[in-house]
Amino acid sequence: MTPDLSRLLRPASIAVIGGGTWCANLIRQSVAMGFAGPVWPVHPTKAEIGGARAYPSLSALPGVPDAVFVGVNRDATIATIAQLREMGAGGAVCFAAGFLEAEAELGDGAEMQARLLHAAGDMPIIGPNCYGFVNYLDGALLWPDQHGGQRCKSGVAILTQSSNIAINLSMQARGLPIAYLMTVGNQAQLGLSALGRALLEDPRVTALGLHIEGVGDLRAFEALAEAARRAGKPIVALKSGRSDQARAATQSHTASLAGSGAGAASLLARLGIAQVTSLPQMLETLKLLHFAGPLPNNAVVSISCSGGEASLMADTALDHALTLPALTPTQSRALRAALGPRVALANPLDYHTFIWGDVAAMAATFAAALDGPADIGVMIADFPRPDRCDPSAWDCIFEAGAEAQRRVGKPLALIATLPDCLSESVAERAIASGLIPLAGLDDGLTAIARAAWLGQGRSTPLPLLLPGTPTQPRTLTEAEAKAALAAHGLRIPQARRAATPAELTATLSDMALPLVIKAEGLAHKTEAGGVIFVHHADDLAETQAKARAMPCQSWLIEEMIAAPIAELLIGVLRDPAHGFVLTLGAGGTLTEILRDTTSLLLPVTEADLTQALSHLRAAPLLGGYRGQPAANHAAILKAVMAVQDYVIAHAATLEEVEINPLLCTASDAVAVDALITKGERP
After folding, report:
1. Per the domain annotation, does 489 fall within a domain?
2. CB 101 within 8 A of CB 129
3. Which of 214, 458, 570, 605 measures 20 to 30 Å from 69, CA to CA?
4. 417 vs 443: CA distance, rounded Å
């Protein structure tokens, strides 16, 4: 259950504990914001702080504060929080550092955090080691520094795990209305997810932006996503640390392909959260979502007065998987009437400059382009810098665009190819004209692509399979791994082990050819010379000699799977931060060369798997390429689901599973190599 944070986030009164520069900054910023309620500084010796009368103690305050900024050292913070809870305060921001986040440096951080939580009880606290928040809707802030935002009636909420990034975001000059800007500190009591849900509960908030360093409580994050889905408020996330691996690539291909970046991306996609890779992308996406909401599809119509811009749009749209639908006959007739015979009609449209400044003709052109199959229109216009140029000739863009949008009723974006060429004043004028200003072609089209992705209907996913924390992990032998997976329904080749050269000779005599001889105990057998194929009886003597020369003490002799159509990788990696990451991709010796993979989080359905397999570059091969037989799709799904069943049964102790390759034939899917690493319960 989400705690009630209404008094803390939307206070009628604020208290500031401490007399340092940070506290004085907060008081001055509150005055500058036009906060309507009282701001009460508290300090035992100072008569005034930040221009406001100070009170010697909490007991001397004229009332019980709704929100409190605690700007004293960590020891005093704990005592202050206890007193605030006893007097019934609405909640507090804890500014001081030196708690759990400093355990390695100080040695008592965990103890101090436990004391802080005990002191707070059920009173909400944000932090510690936290800058706090700015509520631009009500003009209320617990923020000890400058910020660049301004009051608004509705807007997006932005929640970040970095105070510096929050400050930077507040300085945006892109026309994005920000309703709340909040930092979370070390999340001792209230985490990213709980605070995000509280922000979404405000009806004036239209979308939520997250800067994430670590998710923390996966169940709480699932609940945040579900709350956003039910409220119809999209979430956009920037996850840092994409380059970190969940673990070192020692035993398997999977570990080198699916680290924490793949886990995070899979988590966000699973929960219907749009992922971006930069702060400008996040801002532009949030802006589009605020003004237009998610888009029904990815179709765009582009309008510019330059052939170069039209070509750039076409190329950039392709990079973002956006479509530029052909003009309909109705659109073409209307455009021809507005533009005359000299303009080639297409999407993207270069309308030249013949009608520049003719607002009526420009409006007719923009309306005709917008009145088609695309769900959003894009007008490309880079505005002159006002300090050296006269931008008045561009006024016609606003007038014509506003009229076109009014006639057709679809979202119409004004996008500058360069962010430098769309100033805040231009953005504000565009918004006043009913247009959506987007700064930069690449970031702007990223925003459109993400809004289109968010517009696709999604049901609530299955609850995540949570990872355990196994100890003393060990890697099973190939034979052990295959037997364990076969017990859950995985098809494996007929095989026998040979622990001595004599057993090797006997086994080769008993089993039908063709066969495969594998050295046991090698991680990457093919690369290490640990695989020999035996096709003919005449080769047996030579084969035995080669097998005995392998760097191993035992062997695995298996039937050879005939006529494989494709080789696949099935890998599952325990990602402590995100769950179990399932990786599907091209398998065999080319796995890391091709890097043709897709990742999901467990559990998955057969429908999820079918969609994921279709995204592989190898998908045409699986479906029967150029008249060749298709792989057995049902057998592939059965193999993956068998692996999932094994993972679910051993989630508490499992580190990793890998099948590489899964040989896919027209009738079967056989795991010819397998690896399992698992440990013990802690």
Report:
1. no
2. yes
3. 214
4. 9
Nearest-5° angle of CA 465, CA 604, CA 592? Answer: 95
Residue type for 507, please? Answer: T
Q: Domain check: are 418 and 531 in the same one?
A: no
3-state SS, one letter per residue, for 397-421: HHHHHHHHHHHHCCCEEEEECCHHH
Q: Which residues of 299-324 are buried (b: 16+ CB within 10 A; e: fewer)?
A: bbbbbbbbeebbebbeebbeebebeb
Q: Model confidence over 140-155: pLDDT tens digits? A: 999 999 999 999 999 9
- pTM value? 0.91
Q: Which range, 239-243, 263-267, 517-521, has the best average confidence (pLDDT)?
A: 263-267
Q: How sure is the predictor about 601, in pLDDT bands with cuts at 50, 70 and 90? A: very high
Query: Which residue is listed with tokens 């988590």?
Result: 267
If asked whether residues 207 and 336 sit together in one domain, one would say no
Contact between residue 312 and residue 441 where contact means Cβ atoms under 8 Å apart:
yes
Regarding whether 410 and 542 lie in a shared domain, the answer is no
Structure-token pair, residue 384: 């002159």
Q: Helix, strand, or coil here: 122?
A: coil
- CA-based angle 541:546:551, to the nearest 5? 145
Whether residue 339 contacts residue 325, with contact meaning beta carbons closer than 8 Å, is answered with no
- Percent of the chain exceeding pLDDT 90 equals 78
Average pLDDT over residues 585-596: 79
Per the CB < 8 A criterion, the answer to whether 493 and 558 are in contact is yes
Amino acid symbol at 561 = I
Q: Does residue 440 come out as left (phi exceeding 0), alpha (psi in the -120 to 50 range) or beta? A: left
Total domains in the chain come to 4
- Identify the DSSP state of 50: T
pLDDT of residue 450: 98
Nearest to 173 by CA among 149, 157, 139: 149
Q: State which H helix or E strand residue 664 sits in.
A: strand 654-664
Count of beta carbons in the 10 Å neighbourhood of residue 471? 10
Over residues 188-204, the mean pLDDT reads: 96
Q: Which CATH number do you get for residue 636?
A: 3.30.470.20
For residue 662, which of 580, 594, 561 has the smallest C-alpha distance? 561
CATH code of the domain covering residue 356: 3.40.50.261
Provide φ and ψ at 196, rounded to 5°. -60, -40
CB atoms within 10 A of CB 649: 13
Residue that is last in its domain, among 189, 213, 237: 213
Both 202 and 94 in one domain: the answer is yes
Residues 423 and 348 reside in one and the same domain? yes
Say whether both 547 and 581 belong to one domain: no
DSSP string for 579-610: EEEEEEEE-GGGHHHH--EEEEESS--HHHHH
Residues in the chain: 682
Domain shared by 316 and 188, yes or no = no
Give yes or no for a contact between 109 and 74, defined as CB atoms under 8 angstroms apart: no
Instruction: Tell me if 291 sits within 8 A of 431, measured CB to CB.
Output: yes
Tally Cβ neighbours within 10 Å of residue 627: 5
Burial class of residue 521 in the structure, from the number of CB atoms within 10 Å of its CB (0-12 exposed, 13-18 middle, 19+ buried): middle
The string of pLDDT tens digits covering residues 118-132 is 999 999 999 999 999
Sign for the CA dihedral angle at 17, 22, 25, 29 comes to negative
Residue 121 and residue 37 in one domain: yes
Domain interval for residue 187: 6-213
Of 187, 213, 239, the one marking the end of a domain is 213
Which residue type, as a one-letter code, is found at position 384? Answer: P
Q: Which two tokens stand for residue 556?
A: 């695995």
Q: Where are the alpha helices (DSSP H) in 487-615?
A: 501-510, 540-548, 591-594, 606-614
